[in-house]
Design a protein that fits this description.
The chain is an alpha+beta fold and 389 residues long. It has three domains: 80 residues; 162 residues, no CATH class; 100 residues, no CATH class. Helices cover 18% and strands 34% of the residues. The chain has seven helices and 24 strands. The chain has a seven-stranded mixed beta sheet with strand order 4-3-8-11-12-1-13. β21 and β22 form a beta hairpin. It is globular. The N terminus and C terminus are likely disordered.
């Protein structure tokens, strides 16, 4: 269900699933029935509440000082709400889902961004890089409304890291305020403003990234972009992940591949890169191995050769996305001992490069210039009626 204009519903997945949570109000507030809008109780500034599941009735039980309220769904308003030590603005929605409470922060888009930038960028990143990400994050959030069904977006990297309101966000707050209401547009459509930590020196194209939330077809603004300065050095070269290497024994790699149905290969024989995309990322891989097969007539077992074609993404997932930080890599056999993965960058590499944006900001580029590089053929412009659901 779409959020009201200007509001987003953010699933607080890091806090959901519990049988009970504690909430403290930052100002006078209201406890209401979220389904009907009925005002149940006026709450005092600083009041503490305990929200818990009644597993017999499937209700949320709200307990305060000397009272208890039961509802299928509740909403809490009261300034900045402290929920298990985290601070969230505007409204908290709560219902029972699965084995525990489902918590959703209903929040204005701009206040939401104040909790996204500190989760996505270090506080020391240049202000123009922070502004660029603010425009990206605003565009992404609005175009992805309803992504999770029960709520619009979650608070994890699956959508955008949302940490609520906390210390250390002065530059992020300035970036949000300076870009208020600005988004990325392609024609009359909002841009799918994907971004990643470190593109490894070159971004990739939309068709090469199997993200579940990407739009169909191609987009002129999501394509290969070389992230290099006039001196021939990558703007993201300062990243701790810009160059990396990982070595695995044949047995260790085999064990990891066999845990994933898409890469299961039995006794590993070889790994061959079949295709590299235009950005230098591994696109198609051929895995060869041997699997035991039993002869039903004799009962004897033998090893038969198998070959499986898969993707660089599947290989990275099987080995571990924190181990193989991107698919922009080459794979070398180290004799019969194992394999060496030598790569650059961290993440999918689509759209804006966060560390590259910081490099560009420190080189004197404005947020408009930064966005023009990473999203060619897109423009920065104010939100309009067309951006609303």
């Amino acid at each position: 269900m779409s959020s009201p204009a200007g509001l987003l519903r953010i699933g607080l997945t890091r806090l959901s699933g519990r049988s009970a949570v504690s909430v403290k109000l930052g100002a006078a507030g209201v406890l209401a029935d979220a389904a009907t809008g009925e005002r149940v109780r006026t709450l005092a500034p600083g009041e503490s509440l305990r929200l818990a599941v009644d597993y017999n009735t499937g209700e949320v039980v709200v307990r305060g000082a000397g009272y208890s309220v039961r509802r299928q769904t509740v909403s809490l308003r009261g300034g900045v709400l402290q929920v298990e030590g985290r601070r969230y603005p505007d409204t908290l929605l709560c219902r029972v889902a699965g084995a525990g409470l489902q918590l959703v922060n209903q929040v204005d888009v701009e206040r939401y961004l104040e909790g996204v930038l500190p989760g996505e960028l270090p506080a020391w990143f240049g202000l123009e890089a922070q502004k660029a990400l603010a425009v990206c994050a605003r565009s992404y959030a609005l175009v992805q409304r309803g992504k999770h069904g029960d709520f619009d977006l979650c608070d994890r990297p699956h959508c955008q890291m949302y940490v609520g309101l906390g210390p250390g966000g002065a530059r992020a707050l300035a970036a949000v305020q300076a870009t208020r209401g600005l988004a990325l547009w392609s024609g009359e459509e909002l841009v799918y403003a994907f971004y990643s930590a470190d593109c490894g020196g070159v971004s990739t194209g939309l068709e090469e990234v199997p993200l579940t939330d990407k739009p169909p077809g191609t987009k002129p603004y999501l394509r290969v972009v070389r992230d290099r300065n006039p001196a021939g050095k990558d703007y993201c070269a300062g990243s701790p992940y810009h160059y990396w290497r990982v070595s695995l024994t044949r047995q260790a790699l085999q064990n990891r591949l066999n845990k994933d149905p898409e890469t299961r290969i039995g006794q590993l024989q070889s790994v061959e890169v079949r295709r590299v995309d235009a950005s230098g990322r591994v696109a198609d891989v051929v895995l060869r191995g041997r699997v035991a097969q039993r002869d039903p007539s004799t009962g004897a077992s033998s090893l038969i050769p198998v070959e499986k074609q898969t993707t660089g993404w599947a290989l990275r997932r099987a080995v571990g996305s924190l181990r193989l930080k991107s698919t922009r890599m080459r794979i070398e056999a180290v004799g019969s001992a194992g394999y060496r993965f030598i790569g650059s960058g961290f993440g999918h590499g689509l759209g804006l490069c966060q560390i590259g944006a910081d490099g560009r900001a420190k080189a004197g580029q404005s947020f408009q210039q930064i966005l023009a590089v990473y999203y060619p053929n897109a423009r920065v412009a104010p939100l309009s009626v067309a951006s609303q659901p």
